[in-house]
Amino acid sequence: MKMKIQLSLFAILLSTMVMAQPKNTSHASQIWLAYFNQTRLSNKWGLWGDFQIRTREEVLSDFSTGIARVGLTYFVDDNVRLTVGYSFINNFPPNDNIQISQPEHRPWQQVQWFTRNKRTRLMQYIRLEERYRRRYLNNAELADSYAFNFRLRYNFFYQIPLNPQGLIPKKLSAIVNDELHVNFGKQIVNNY
Predict the structure, then answer these.
(1) Does 151 map to a domain?
(2) H or E segment at 163?
(3) Labelling 35: which of 42, 50, 65, 86 has CA 20 to 30 A away?
(4) What's the pTM value of the predicted model, to 2 decimals?
């Protein structure tokens, strides 16, 4: 019995020591500038556009990514939209060894739906992207081939009014937004 108590105490002590290991952390500053627009052209048709610039540590000179995304939207009704589109993404290398940016072509399809009431609005979409990323030949040249994989995205955008009248134009509201990305395909090893 005494041996079991000693082993149990040793296991607890060991597990405490393992959990007490220092974490390796890194800190990075980034700026993401973006413009998003959905324009309804008629009862059934509209346009999607979003344009983004992302930076790294050197906020004004160290670019990370540039994105231009456009799409044609079909309005099933006021609460459901189907969109097909194309994105051009330019990924800038994260280190000084690679001296050229990596272009990416990304056709995409999306279903977007809204749940609305007087007090709140929930927007969600599921998007499938086909990602064609140009391969590097070496640190200064791009190859003629592309790496390919799929990305599935789920986005939710929850809007809560900050005034008693509810969601009305030109009034402040709070927003909770998040997006989940899942990459899949033959070339995906780690999904992060």
Answers:
(1) yes
(2) none
(3) 42
(4) 0.77
**The residue to which tokens 């108590």 are assigned:** 5
CA distance 166 to 137: 55
Can you tell me the distance from the alpha carbon of 144 to that of 24, in angstroms, rounded to the nearest whole number?
A: 38
Q: What is the pLDDT of residues 108-145, one digit of tens each?
A: 999 999 998 878 899 999 999 999 999 888 888 889 99
- Residue at 20 is within a domain: no
Residue 173's domain comprises 26-184
Q: Is residue 92 part of a domain?
A: yes
Contact in structure between 167 and 114 (CB atoms under 8 Å): no
Closest CA to 91 of 145, 140, 43, 55: 55
Q: 83 Cβ partners below 8 Å, 6+ apart?
A: 48, 71, 72, 73, 74, 108, 109, 110, 111, 112
Q: What are phi and psi of 8, to 5 degrees?
A: -65, -45
38 contacts 73 by C-beta, under 8 angstroms = yes
Question: How many domains does the chain contain in total?
Answer: 1
Contact between residue 41 and residue 74 where contact means Cβ atoms under 8 Å apart: no
CA distance linking residue 97 with residue 90, whole number of Å: 17
| Interatomic CA distance for residues 80 and 165, integer angstroms | 25
Lookup: tokens for 45: 């048709």
